[in-house]
Amino acid sequence: MKIQTMFKKDINRPISGVVQVGQDDESSLAQELGEYVITRELRQHFDTFLNNYSAAIDRPTERIGVWISGFFGSGKSHFLKILSYLLANQSIGDQNAVDMFKDKFDDPMMYATLMRCAQVPTESILFNIDIEGPINKDKTAVLRVFAKVFYNHLGFYGNDLKVAKLERHIDSLGKTQEFRQAFEAADGRPWVDRRKSYKLLVDRLLPVLQNILEISETTARDWLRAKDTEELSIQQLVDEIKEYVDSKGKNFRLLFCVDEVGQYIGDDGNLMLNLQSIVEQVGSQCLGKVWVMVTSQEAIDSVVKISGNDFSKIQGRFNTRLSLSSKSVDEVIKKRILEKTEDAENFFVLYMARNTLS
Q1: What's the pLDDT score for residue 86?
Q2: Could you tell me the pTM of the whole model?
Q3: Which of 3, 100, 142, 309 maximizes the CB count within 10 A of its CB?
Q4: What is the spatial distance between Cα 334 and Cα 353, in angstroms, rounded to a whole number?
Q5: Which residues contact 13 (CB under 8 A, 6 or more apart)?
């Protein structure tokens, strides 16, 4: 028997040593979901999370913060990514994500809970905040990242809040398609390809804004001349998030799955308070319809040193805390890479028996 034929999975297949939340091509997702190993430790974390998440389906809750900690190699980013795709029940080829996990849980009740959670219409915004965040971090940097990814998710230009707000206003009027068609007729190229350079397109954009929004030339020019950086409060953003989830139906859920929060925040207390305020407002206004799930190398009480009531409030916003370790690496390797075929297992049993008798 050749060694390469002993294993259940092709030993020559590419295996990524590091999971990236931004790597979302179908082949990578199929491999990540199909080969994901639920270790004894992960089983406990799935149980804790699914119980808390499913409870919110029946009862409105403000407890929507999830803090997933673990050092490099613990699998925290992979765990966040898997949760994101399972809860949204992402389609991978001809299968759904939840279907690919049917044989991974040793507890039928836990899988039933997962299925119940996944049956709720859900959209997930999965991103690495260190990649999406601005280089220059002021005390509202976390808010601006959340606004950026939310607008991008809606199909607007989140990189520029001024443009995103214009697009959202046009969309609220039901004129998005009309606006884009009018712009392409004037410019020759699609709006989504040109919007980042809107300041260079005044002659073509001005009449389109006038006609679509039914505003004067002066008003259109005033908007074009206005400063690039639009102010945005947490309250304004959460109002828009709530408006969006409410428009999707009673049971709809929206997930913000944020990788590497601890690395991005560092020792900046202002950024941590900014995150806490966002989670607080989302929880109190959306009542379980929007969740914020983050990863960090450090536990929540080790990220920044904030004393007094502020720190207690931060801890209170992340009621679900899951700490992953690297102790199950051997279990993962054994099941994901070294799992053998039935013929190979029988071969080794016979081999060991013969050597024992001899």
Answers
A1: 97
A2: 0.86
A3: 142
A4: 22
A5: 31
